[in-house]
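S1.2 Input.
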Amino acid sequence: MKEIKETARERAGLVGLNCAGLAGFDNSDPDTMAELEQLLETAGGQCIFTATQNRNAPDPHTFIGEGKAQEIAQLVRQNEVELLVFDNEISPSQTRALEDIMKCRVMDRNGLILDIFADRAKTREGKLQVELAQYQYLLPRLSGMWTHLVRQTAGGGRSPIGTRGPGETQLETDRRHIRQRIARLEKEIENVKQARATQRRKRRKRETPLIALVGYTNAGKSTLLNALTGAGVHANDRLFDTLDPTTRSYKMQDGGEILLSDTVGFIRKLPHHLVDAFKATLEELTYADVLIHVVDASSEIWQSQMQVVESLIDQLGAQQTPRIVAFNKCDRMPAEFHPRMSGAVHISARQGQGLDRLLEAIEQTLARFKRRVEFILPYERASVLDMLYQEADVKQAEYGPEGIAVAVVCDSQILGRLREWVPDTRKKEEWED
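S1.3 Output.
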């Protein structure tokens, strides 16, 4: 029987900087370094050593300082390391300087996450978004990839044989090509956004509530979607296992239908290129009726992970969307050690524990933001009924001598537009947060 050889993993070193000159989330600490090692393993690498440096401010040339750079370069040579990954974001010029010193490839956390996303994206939409983010990340770093070419200057100058051209260097050609590709990708992603907008309009017309699952990467969102809907989404215990969003319908006990949507997991120091590129997907959060914030209760740093997710939700403009906190993976720890938070539910998506309480919380949250009202609509304002058919759930519309007897289930925003005919809108505070 032929033996199958496992592909050798790339040998890598991890480096982090902690200094007062960096913002809180940009600094390195033992937790972020441990997470970086997980990211490296997800990308298929092997951590050979880790190194951290404390400074008052980043060194403008080497980021970590000349002395520390030489010390790490010796570790690279001794351990035959092929790749050095920085936990912090480093500039293109710092990357080039470090590669000259280390004599190996150098990248930062952003580049590593982009590489993982490129490997994980399966749908056309996901691939478009990752490609756009990669090009935006690559563009300012191109000059370091063409150091063997002499760029032309206004005053002329001598170029090596084989590099003289008709007035445009290879670097300039590549930059122009990438800018054109970015423009095409942005146009294609805009078409994706328009298609999603059409889907949302259809959903609003059917008045089907959308419940979005959000959370830190590897919190168990896909496992929860599978447990509730049998979606069969690929779910493994690894970072960024799901990039492409999946939406499935679910029948509630009262006969109503909801849509559950899985989303890409968040992580601290998520590259802004990725956030921008994935906005076509992530903006679904702003249109969701309820967010279920899935938290890995077994993580020792669940509070900081929650903070990262809440910060990104705010950044995407969904801070006003009602949410339910679901502490997942509670089967991994005794009940007395479960995190406590008002209104939160404790579940184990893998074991199917606590899902009934989660569904009950969803029903209660949806009920708080919708209400059934009945009123008589004058015939001269019949156009309002057309609006209700498009944006609410009309249960009854009977034509009588005094007008149209309407029964409708709507949210507080629609109810405000019906204030003229619904006298008890002053009671909104009873059901509106």
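S1.4 Remarks. Confidence is low (pLDDT under 50) at residues 1-6, 146-167, 425-433.
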